[in-house]
Amino acid sequence: MGSTNGLINAQGKQPLLSFGVISDVQYADIPDGRSFLGVPRYYRHSILVLQRAIQKWNRQNPKFVMNFGDIIDGFCPKEQSFNAVKKLVEEFDNFNGAVYHMIGNHCLYNLPRDRLLPLLRIHTHDGHAFYDFSPIPEYRLVVLDGYDISAIGWPKDHPKTIEALKFLSEKNPNSDKNSPNGLTDLDRRFLMFNGAVGKEQLEWLDGVLLDATKSNQKVVICCHLPLDPGASSREALLWNYDEVMDVIHRYNCVKVCLAGHDHKGGHSIDSHGVHHRVLEAALECPPGTDAFGCIDVFDDRLSLSGTDRMKSTEMIFS
Length: 318
Ligand SMILES: Nc1ccn([C@@H]2O[C@H](COP(=O)(O)O)[C@@H](O)[C@H]2O)c(=O)n1
Ligand SMILES: O=P(O)(O)OC[C@H](O)CO
Description:
Largest sheet: 6 strands, mixed
CATH superfamily: Metallo-dependent phosphatases
Organism: Oldenlandia corymbosa var. corymbosa
CATH class: Alpha Beta
Protein name: Manganese-dependent ADP-ribose/CDP-alcohol diphosphatase
Bound molecules: the ligand Nc1ccn([C@@H]2O[C@H](COP(=O)(O)O)[C@@H](O)[C@H]2O)c(=O)n1, SN-glycerol-3-phosphate
Keywords: Hydrolase, Metal-binding, Zinc
Subunit structure: Monomer.
Distance between the termini: 21 Å
Oligomer: single chain
EC number: 3.6.1.13, 3.6.1.16, 3.6.1.53
């Protein structure tokens, strides 16, 4: 039992902070469909999941909400993309508090970074979408841009697009670079719908974690793409999840990594005791069902109270 209504929790402690979570809304004004592997996708219903999430959060009163990306779906008719993202952001703004967005592959199928990021109110230099904030002195949230090196979202002639296409041509021999056919085990992540954290962002992350360590802050990492094979399908992992985790494991401050993208969700604890929780997608909720949650933050754990298809998870720090 969490304390997401502002009351003390089962252990008798008041959380330091609470925040709402939702992922992969992937709204589109199109009939229901299926993923490549046949999983039903409810494109119009997903906005109702978001609306019910906001109603509940407004009763629970978390300090802020994190949207883990893919706010609209790649099948959204392209002439509707801008207004669809705007409509969804306006829905999020019905929450009585701050909302932090991150980008995902489906947002980038719809709009290039220079149009998408201002809509999502991600104001960073050079079109990057990584940032951090400290909602209370004891904690820092770090949002990673998993499509920093990517074949989607940057202009076709951008050095990052060229780097990503070169990388994919070396790692994935299929003509359809979204196909994992023939790739084995962890190599199945080398797909066009994934991406990587670039060198500059890795250096930035290292600096943030050093600063958090000096400030005695605990850190929660948020990224659309999962960072641990134990919590995710191989096909959904960040290309260089291992390099990112090497940086994270240099420090003891990171306690939890949260992600979306792998719609079925997952949870693992890695070899360094870091929790990885991949959030179940709002898009795949059959009509009338939900997937969102509220996380209570304590000094020794994060406690996710999930609604319906989002499983509740206690993440006790080792
Ligand atoms: N096992 C798979 C999964 C996906 N693909 C390709 O990716 C595209 C997007 O997949 P969705 O799960 O979002 O539908 C899909 O159209 C395929 O091209 C694949 O080849 N093999
Ligand atoms: O981003 P999607 O919706 O195309 O789905 C990605 C897959 O879930 C990754 O395995």
